[in-house]
Amino acid sequence: MSADSLCPSHHASSAICEQCVKRKTDTLFPTRPDSVCLLQQADKEMASWVSLLLFLFCKSVARAQESNNILEYTSETPINNVVQDPQTGRIYLGAVNTIFQLGASLKLQARAETGPQEDARTCTPPASACQDTKPMPNLNKLLLVHPSNGTLIVCGSRYRGICSLRNLTNVEEQVYYRDSNGERTYVASIEDNVNVVGVMSTYIREGHTFSVFLVGKGYGSLDSTKLISTRILQDFREWVVFESIIEASTVQTTPFVPKYLHDFRLAFKEDGFVYFLFSRTLDGTDNKNLTFVSRLCEDDHHYYSHTELQLNCGQNNRYNKVQAAYVASPGTELARVMTDSGKYENKVLFMVASSDEDDNDSALCMYPLNLINERLVDIISACYSDSGKIGGFPAVDIPYSSKTDEFCTSRIAKDTLEQFKCGADFLPSPLASKPKFALQADTVLTRQGLLTAVAVAVENEHTIAFLGNNQGEVLKVHLTAEAHVYSKAPGDTMGEKVNKNLFFDLSQSHLYITTEKKITKVPVQTCLQMKDCQSCVELKDPYCGWCVLEGRCTRRSECRRAEEKNGWLWSPKQECVKIRSFTPPNLSCKKTQKVLIHIPSLPFIGSSDRLMCIIKSFQSEGTMSGSGQVSCDLPSPSLIPQTPENQDFVAVMVMIFVNETVELAAREFNFYNCAATVKKSENTPCMACVTSPWGCQWNTNDHTCSDMDSSMTGPNIIKHREGARCPQFENPDPGLIPVGYKIPISFEGINLDLYEGRVFTIGTELMRNVEEEVNIGEVQFYTFSGFSFSYDKSPETNVLFYVKDKESGKKMDSTLNVTLYNCSMGREDCSLCKNADPKYKCVWCAKQKACVYEMLCKSNQQGFDDPSNTECPDPQITDIIPRFGPLRGGISITIRGSNLGIRKEDIKRITVAGQPCIHQEEKYSVSTSVVCEIGSSGTKAKWGQVEVEVNGGKKGISSLVFTYRDPIPQTVTPSRGPKAGGTLITISGQFLDTGSKDDVHVTIGTVDCTVEHFGVRITCRTGEYRTDKVPSDLLPVTVTYGKSTVTTVPSAFRFLENPIVLDHQPKGSFVCGGRNIMVTGSGFDLIQTAVMMVQGDNMKAYEDYHEKNDTVIQFRSPTVNESLNQHFRTYIHLDNWVKELKPFDYHQNPVFDKLTKNVINEASIIIVTGRGFSKAMTAKEAQAFVGDVPCLVNTLQDDKLFLDPPSTPPRARSRRQRRDTRPELLDLMIKFGKGEWLVGLVQYEKKNDLSLYIIIPAVVVPMLLIIAISVYCYRRKSQQAEREYEKVKHQLENLEESVRDRCKKEFTDLMIEMEDHTNDLSEGRIPFLDYKTYTDRVFFLPSKDGANDVMITGKLDIPEARRATVTQALNQFSNLLNSKTFLINFIRTLERSHDFNARAKVYFASLLTVALHGKLEYYTDIMRTLLLELMEEYVHSKNPKLMLRRSETVVERMLCNWMSICLYQFLKDSAGEPLYKLFRAIKHQIEKGPVDARVKKAKYTLNDTGLLGDDVEYSVLTLQVLVHGEGPDVTPVKVLNCDTISQVKEKIIEQVYRNLPYSQRPKVESVTLEWRPGSTGQILSDLDLTSQKEGRWKRINTLAHYNVRDNATLVLSRVFHTQQNYDQNQENHEERNALLDDDKVFHLVRPADELDEIKSKRGSIKDKSMTKAITEIYLTRLLSVKGTLQQFVDDFFRSVLCSGAVVPPAVKYFFDFLDEQAQKHSVDDETIHIWKTNSLPLRFWVNILKNPHFTFDVHVSEVVDASLSVIAQTFMDACTKSEHKLSRDSPSNKLLYAKEISTYKKMVDDYYKGIRQMVPVSDQDMNTHLAEVSRSHTDKLNTQVALHQLYQYASKYYDGIIASLDEDPAAQSKQLTLRLQQIAAALENKVTDL
Predict the structure, then answer these.
(1) What angle do CA 237, 240, 244 make, to 5 degrees?
(2) What confidence tens digit (pLDDT) does each residue in 1395-1424 have?
(3) Under a CB-based contact definition with an 8 Å cutoff, are residues 1190 and 1167 in contact?
(4) Rounded to an integer, what distance in angstroms lies between the CA atom of residue 1229 and that of residue 1207?
(5) Cα–Cα–Cα angle for 437, 440, 446, nearest 5°?
(6) Under the phi-then-psi rule, with left for phi > 0, alpha for psi from -120 to 50, and beta for the rest, what region is 574?
(7) The pTM of the whole model exceeds 0.70
């Protein structure tokens, strides 16, 4: 029975083993009398032993399989957290909606469903109390093993991050869950992107030790602000399970401002400390992440010890954002690198971090914990003892605090610091390092791509890091002095990101890798898979080594003799047992002997070990011959293989085995064959023999090479290395041989004594197998008569002659090497021939008209002159390039021909069409080519021949003519392109092909245009226009020919701004490519070529666009190589402009499983399974085919595809299939883009129709006839009604669709156009008013004097002489106001007075607010006192619900002012931005359409009364505005052609001065607008002499009136006046205003009741009713505008009504005060809701919402104000408890937001509820906050003016105040009456002073 049959797979084997265990124990220890194990009939004892053996066998096989197998478990939902039970090794997965309990081998043991849950984002548990809940997914936020009581802590994202306890042995069992304990038990976060970490710890209280866990949590908008909390795990006294038991207000984000955004990554414990690792942004404006580690003493019950240390990774902290980390002790090897001693007790924090600059660049850094602790101690010591300085530099910060004053003020003696290592209540906390004192670490390893996980192990003192990345790979890194990646963990993770849950099993032999939905268990090493030493060491795996005497690649612990010397060879050392050498090093194949084998790294061979040498089939026993030497026998010659054909030796492998089976080492041993050496060089056989490395000898008698034989001697034996004795022929003369002429050759012969009298023959391959005899000349000299060679493949070639002994026919050694040459090759004319090297003796043979060897010509020309003196013929001109040139010359022409001289000096003169041409000597080519630069021909076009005169007066005249003419470029197309360049432009005209491509240079303005094609038309590609601002004018295109001719097409081309890319969808593709990618933006019409490019580390892939218009370009994603595991970047090249598409991810191709169901029919659903489908594909994009018929992809999930069956019977797609023996089998093909997958063969089955042939005629046909007749009759009756119904339905659908489309389009346009504003906001450009202006406007702008109120101007007219007295008296009056008794009497007296009206009360309260601003705590106390009186009054004598509704009392206005003061900072930090965006969006949307300047109505508004009830025709214009005196730059401004000139000015000022607040911009009346359509300018104004009249009505001038066109340039000028001009201008201005104020002026629409009588008489009643009805149709515009602005309205409401985000302390404080009083007076919930509404939303927010100019430096026009009023009314409606009954007669404004009101009401309720559950704000906290406001702002306010104005009221009601004070005993005791009288005396004549 094989192991496979017993344990076919790991899962199967473990199952069998579990059965074995059960059966074994049942049998050995029977629990039932009938226990049976494997064989029921067998003997029990026998069965027990069989089962025990089987159990042990299975276990061993399973272990072996597990060590190599990859185990995995896949979750249906994303996995958030994974933990391992340290006692049992069980794995717990916290996934979305599920907790899985898995065994160590990833077999599912139990699962618990945790979601979806009925919840709402703002819901406060229990859920039963929440409204508007819906099923929401439950993400796992925290998973901790609590081993001491066997529970699993599970915290999710639902119900405000509440936790539960589950049983570790069965997670289905919930041990504890309670959702009614309130905010104190909310642990995690409901935000998906907020990370939570935790660590188990203990807490000691009153002698009891409790299990707790510490939690680090980022900030979510609806979470508590605690960053770190300690949670108890049992009820104790007032504590409940999961309660946060340490209240430390310091370690949290400030309640006023979410200053820091934390991303926690790790929590761990070490040596009595708890550490948290996180990154955070500096604050809300700076998005740069910084990484910190914070530390707490484990027994610190107040977090006094919380200290943060910045960790910098890489140079300049490039890797600033921590992704994951792991704490471990390093191995000795790494410790040695890190420290000098190599001893390293401490652990190290290994951290992977990424760069904000490039999110695909990441690194590994190491921080020893002792260095972290030392730096933390430095920081703490600096704060406690050295004023927060290290080395004189500030080193300490206090995070999470708005304090700016000095905090490190304690002076603790350094020797006592140890006592305070965990802080104290009197010491500052928390502390943090300044950036200068961050702990710096160099990168250990950097990688392209994002590293997301790290785990570290130690093996044999070596440190190995496992790094996960976002491509699903786990890299194995050997950490040494130079860390390197040596491998990747096995497993298929489909390119999914490895999440931070990367850890080892309990034995450290396996690694658990978690990706999005899968956990995989892989071995940490794969040593055993390597079958030989070489592959083992090539792994470079620190885990592995070659176990020499076992012949296995193993871990050191698995090699029995690893400790023996050379017993285990470590893989990274790259060494194997090797045979270094043999003695003898080689042997003749004709001999045999023993060989000594040298093996330096041979392990210890014991007496019991047997050595064996194997050489091919020959075996011999090996013996040790000293250290590292083995002696073996070599095989006999007959067993040695034949010598290969082209070699002189045969290499045979010598292998040494130990103990029969284990190969120790192997190396080739060479057996040489001397006879074969001569084959290597047949022309020098003797030399080849005696110089070979084998030591052979040569016998000259028989011409043989043989093994060295010392017995053979004599002159005929030439020994090894005696090459000088070899007989040979050398030194041929001459060395040059011409073709076709027989020249005798002589040469030398040496060492030929033994060959005396012999005859030799000579030959070569080129002699065509003819051999000639050699003539013996003088001593040692030989000749042969030569040979007439023929050769025409090249001018010359080498010829090697061989020499043979004629008698024996054997070749002698010959080195006779000569050069054969051919004169005519490459020398086609006389000049080239004469230019040949004289050594060749080539001459021009006139008769043959060829270049030949001189002797060949002489032999042909007896009687002729000496051919070497032959003169060359006249030059011939065959071509002129180019044949046209400009009149001014300056271009080079090339003259081609023959006999054009031998040297450049031979050219004497060149003329072109009679004009001299300057010879360009450096470009001269002998005989064939002359280049010259033509001169000018004057002003006339002319043509003529080219003449070249050479040395000797010879002339060559061309038959071709050259023409002088001037090119005339006329048109350029296209006429515009992007500034980045790359546009291919075509220049057309006359004679453009003058000169050549090299002569032409094109520029557009100053930008070069590279010529690509030159001919009748010239095409060139534009370069980049490098100036920031593109010119508004068309630029000239200049074409330059040569040096002198410049031609221009004026105003021919314009550079425009580069296209804008806004978005791309989808954002990913499979590596197979072909997915349709849609890039949206604007300006694409400018583009000619659009290419998508993908760039990897070492590859690029391109794809052209396939569809394009101005706003959309569509590409198909390029195919990339999936085998290259690399990071890809995707770019689009639009002409020369390059834009990176971010994000754009390439995913591994999907994997398809084998099809299980192979038979389908027209009714069946086809299900295809696999994984990775949804990574980069949707059901709409995917295609499927059965045979040749497409199937609809109905549903696409990540692991399943559901296909509808084919609509028609399919057939095979190819002929090959049709010839198949089973034609019914069809391909099922899936296509994703360019990827095609054949997932299986299916059989399409038609339903059996046989029975139908009988049924149809008999039954179905008559039945169908009856039904058809009935239906026909019925349809005929109902058709008309149906048509009418369809018509109405169609109209309604069209209306609904048009509104929807318009909303969608308007919203998209608004979002695009708001992008600039959003950018402005992100750059901090929201024009917030400063505190003084804000309070002035809120308090005093509504007063009767408005902006001229004395409190706003701050001007008091007091004579200089009285000023000191008045100031002193006012200070005394201020002191008097600070008496509570006086102030309460003062206010009561005024309120009792009948003439103290509501306006006076409001004004008085505002004065009082300013006067007491320096003591806001006192002001708050007065307000509370008066409010308590007011409550008493309303509760007992009036309707309590009316309290605070209006400002009927001083205190109600005081409350409004108090809220305004306390919420100023909240407005700036939180609510201001969404409010400003809402205001901008409304303004922007209104101004997109016509606005009637006269009746203040707009096409786009929210207010039906302000709706322009007419269709005004208009178009959008872009004006190019030049500001006079501010440089040449133009600003494009979008306006409407129906805008009045004032409206245009407003829009221009808004755009030109957009970086200035409104108050600093020029006003409309202070600027003029001038349009210059021609030579003269025209001043544009609202009314002038050209204004149109319609009867008695005059229309205000618009741009359309002046006929201003798109892209017109207008000049904006400031008007600066002298006094006279000013007066004159004032008159004009007043006159203009008078004209505008005239009732008979209109802009867009004339009032309906004043239509011309003639028109109304002519119109019928029907027309009039149409006119009336039609205005209601425009109400859909309200809906359109509402839909467009909805997001901005929601954002504002959310910022104001979201208790989970930031609630100002004043709101919490005041609401708690109201709750307290309501409880005291037993007031119902509805009333308390009304009080809160009246005090905050209606009293403050509505005021701010309706008046944005109270908060921002902006101008609010009437039309904007009308829309803001609608939103303000909606806000008011949302805050009321009463239900709004809506009907058809309700105002449109109410109907508009009717659907949203319920949502907003819910928000208000949740807001109030959330505030109630918040931690109370104490009086002390509130007073601290108020004191901070007083300190910061009081000195800016007009306090003295306020006191002066208040005194006016004291003076007016003086008698009443005195009477009131006299009646009050407390006032009498403080002599308040006297003090008031003294002040009055000092100020008594103040009235006259005024």
Answers:
(1) 110
(2) 888 889 999 999 999 999 999 999 999 999
(3) no
(4) 16
(5) 155
(6) left
(7) no
